[in-house]
Design brief:
This protein has about 450 residues and is mainly α. The chain has 18 helices and no strands.
């Protein structure tokens, strides 16, 4: 047996105590996600210094950015699940092929979004508002981000390979460096410093793609030089039918699940625009702020998924149960802390975005009401990711559809009919209650079906 095969056979995901393993896998990802969340907040805080309309423009661009992330991250989930399962089952050729194919899929995703940038950008923004200044700023920002999206697709692909083989520290380095570069370049490009001309929202977009490109180069280097459990070969990048089927059986539900968030945000922006464009800005601020709470849970998930997928391939039921239980407890604690912050410090949170009195009047009750959904969200997020790790992404998709399209949007629309903006925010905790019921039902059904 080769030395590489021996190393893979003794992979820590099948031998290390679960509590220690989950911490080892998740903490670096939680840290990198927090850095990413910090970038999201700092980026919007800088844009808010330009004007409230500039902040609204970036907020309107977010659904398309979220769709871009959905395609990249969803594909990464499919690659991650197949790669981890292949390693757990000792199918090393399949693992190497999967790793190489991820490069091809990253390029394909980038070309797809260049097409979107040419064809749909302006109509996408006009579908949410008729304010000319907001549309113009949004178009500038979004087209730059879409044309330069190769960095984010390759970065996500390479980070997923690191995560799938247990190298979450290296993944943290990649994502952290990209985010830090972004944060440093934001004020330089937005306001003009060190001889760089002032570029406004265009500068924010350019800083974003620079950070992504640096992050992807770091992640690619770490895979080629440090990730010895897989071998990326440029001659092996073209996918076969088996690899594509296995990747997208998990990836498509994941892509759709995250994309549903884009549809929800797009439609919510339209509902909120019926009250005032300031409500759109507040909603955009909420998404930046909540990322600081949700990102650690997503980091926990990124550490959890390869553990479950590996032990599913190895048929180790006990380790799967232990991982799920510990992940749910950790996620619930994180989300409760977020709930407390949103309840007691909403004024201070909004002050970071140069909020006007009108924005504060709208934003304080919005943050407090929406944050009640956090109390159930931790459990819902973890259980949805468990379904993906076990190759049953359709359950995750159904939960996301129910939460955001079947419950949240109709509830928001009906509540808006009463003419009171504060009532619209109640749609979020209502939707989370429905998702909790479905998650519990599907989790029980999955465990029974797999005899786990």
């Amino acid at each position: 047996m080769s030395s590489v095969a021996t190393e893979i056979k003794e992979n820590k995901m099948g031998t290390m105590p679960v509590n220690k393993l989950l911490v080892t896998m998740s903490v670096p990802m939680v840290i990198s996600m927090l850095v990413q969340a910090l970038y999201n907040i700092v980026d919007s805080a800088f844009v808010a210094q330009i004007s409230e309309n500039a902040l609204s423009a970036v907020s309107l661009a977010f659904p398309m950015q979220n769709f871009m992330i959905a395609v990249g991250a969803g594909t990464g989930v499919g690659v991650n699940a197949l790669l981890s399962k292949s390693l757990g089952a000792k199918k090393f050729d399949t693992a190497n092929k999967t790793a190489s194919v991820s490069l091809f899929l990253a390029v394909l995703n980038w070309l797809f979004f260049i097409l979107i940038a040419f064809v749909f950008t302006k109509s996408f923004l006009r579908g949410q508002t008729d304010v000319t200044e907001i549309i113009q700023d949004g178009e500038i920002y979004l087209r730059i981000v879409l044309f330069g999206s190769f960095g984010i697709f390759l970065q996500v692909a390479m980070e997923r390979l690191l995560q799938a083989t247990g190298r979450t520290f290296e993944a943290m380095i990649s994502q952290g460096i990209g985010a830090v570069v972004n944060i440093i370049l934001d004020p330089i490009f937005i306001f003009g410093m060190f001889g760089i001309p002032k570029m406004g929202v265009a500068g924010a977009a350019i800083a974003t793609i620079f950070g992504q490109m640096i992050g992807c180069m770091v992640a690619l280097y770490l895979n080629l030089k440090r990730n010895h459990e897989i071998h990326i070969d440029i001659k092996n990048v073209l996918p076969n039918k088996y690899i594509l089927k296995k990747i997208y059986t998990v990836a498509i539900p994941s892509i759709l699940m995250i994309s549903i968030g884009s549809i929800m945000i797009f439609c919510m922006n339209r509902i909120l625009d019926g009250f005032t464009s300031t409500a759109i800005a507040v909603f955009g601020i909420y998404f930046k702020l909540q990322s600081f709470i949700f990102m650690p849970v997503f980091g926990l998930n990124n550490g959890m998924i390869p553990i479950i997928a590996y032990n599913y391939g190895a048929r180790n039921k006990l380790r799967i149960h232990q991982t799920i239980k510990m992940s749910i407890i950790a996620a619930v604690v994180i989300m409760f802390a977020g709930f407390a912050i949103f309840q007691f410090l909403p004024h201070k949170l909004l002050a970071m975005f140069k909020a006007s009195e009108n924005m504060i009047a709208i934003g304080v009750p919005a943050l407090r009401i929406i944050s009640f959904s956090f109390l159930l969200a931790g459990y819902n997020i973890v259980t949805s990711s468990v379904f993906q790790a076990l190759g049953n992404g359709i359950y995750s998709l159904l939960i996301s559809v129910a939460r955001q399209l079947v419950v949240l949007l109709p509830a928001a629309y009906l509540l808006a009919r009463f003419g009171e903006l504060n009532q619209v925010w109640l749609a979020f905790p209502i939707a989370e209650i429905a998702a909790f019921a479905l998650c519990s039902l599907f989790l029980a059904r999955t465990m029974k079906k797999l005899n786990f």
